[in-house]
Write a sequence for this structure.
């Protein structure tokens, strides 16, 4: 098998990588929805995800973006997200990077002081606001799809950890939210591996025992991962720390845009956050996002919010990748 050359531009947002495919993918069926495109790429082209995300070209925690033809008329571009396990429905750090990328490459004409970039994701339309000064794109914030608290103050018994209390919230993807102190963990004291093991244990338990539902589409109703927090609320300029462990135990280096959105929705639903109030979120790598509830809305039967999350993305390189016909390891593998 030889699928030719794949070209990419690499960026990172808060330390979390984003590999943007710029050429080399086969053309996808036209006239299909973004969720249908997601299914097609998963079922027909998954060997390319493995080639780009896995070793020897990527690594266990690599993340990617494939730009596709939009199905929403108001969208400037559409994107499918990929990672070590498959294809997610929303990715905030990728939206921040793609907002800047769209302005820098001329996909959307730059307008000062703010350029709006409408990005169609599998979860729906996400509106990015890109700061532009002297023709150069800078920080990016975005408003995603309606986010809501799905389940509050639930508990489960985890082997080795005991009784664990958690929330489940949706921010473009579903996350379990839990205070890391319940696992006897503390940011700055414990290894990243300890957080991964705890978060994965909770994710696996809830996937098996806790059914989810989304009012828009069944394809959105899956638990993407667990976010362990320090129990803080990000008020008063003091950042609340969290780590998001998603997909197949992949660790987000950024504060996680969709995860921050889910946290904001949960905090607002619990009366801990007013509309327009800004909070500060810090990742396990030390990078920060701002977050606020822009306005209230609904999502089917759920009271919901539109959150605004902001961060900064940077370029890290460009590459051309290829696969020689007899290179079995070159098809992709993972070690951890």
């Amino acid at each position: 098998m030889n699928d030719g050359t794949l070209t990419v531009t690499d960026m990172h947002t808060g330390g979390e990588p984003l590999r943007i495919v710029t050429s080399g993918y086969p053309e996808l069926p036209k006239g299909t929805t973004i969720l249908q495109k997601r299914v097609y790429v998963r079922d027909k082209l998954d060997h390319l995800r493995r080639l780009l995300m896995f070793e020897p070209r990527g690594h266990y925690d690599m993340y990617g973006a494939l730009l596709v033809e939009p199905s929403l008329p108001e969208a400037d571009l559409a994107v499918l997200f990929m990672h070590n396990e498959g294809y997610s429905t929303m990715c905030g750090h990728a939206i921040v990077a793609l907002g800047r990328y769209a302005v820098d490459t001329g996909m959307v004409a730059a307008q000062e002081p703010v350029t709006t970039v409408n990005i169609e994701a599998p979860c729906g339309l996400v509106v990015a606001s890109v700061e532009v000064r002297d023709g150069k794109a800078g920080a990016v914030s975005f408003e995603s799809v309606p986010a809501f608290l799905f389940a509050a103050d639930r508990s489960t018994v985890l082997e080795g950890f005991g009784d664990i209390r958690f929330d489940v919230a949706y921010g473009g993807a579903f996350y379990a939210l839990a205070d890391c102190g319940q696992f006897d963990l503390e940011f700055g004291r414990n290894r990243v591996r300890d957080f991964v093991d705890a978060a994965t244990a909770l994710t696996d338990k809830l996937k098996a025992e806790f059914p989810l539902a989304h009012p828009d589409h069944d394809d959105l109703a899956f638990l993407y991962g667990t976010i362990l927090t320090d129990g803080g609320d990000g008020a008063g300029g003091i950042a609340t720390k969290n780590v998001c462990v998603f997909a197949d135990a992949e660790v987000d280096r950024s504060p996680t845009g969709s995860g921050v959105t889910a946290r904001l929705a949960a905090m607002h639903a619990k009366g801990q956050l007013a509309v327009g109030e800004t909070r500060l979120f810090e990742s396990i790598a030390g990078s920060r996002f701002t977050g606020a509830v822009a306005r209230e809305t609904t999502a089917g039967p759920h009271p919901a919010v539109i959150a605004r999350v902001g961060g900064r993305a940077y370029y890290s390189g460009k590459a051309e990748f290829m696969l020689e016909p007899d290179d079995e390891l070159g098809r992709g593998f993972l070690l951890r």
Notes: The domain at 148-311 is CATH 3.10.310.10 (Diaminopimelate Epimerase; Chain A, domain 1). Helices lie at 34-44, 46-53, 92-104, 192-209, 257-269. Residues 8 and 21 are 5 Å apart (CA to CA).
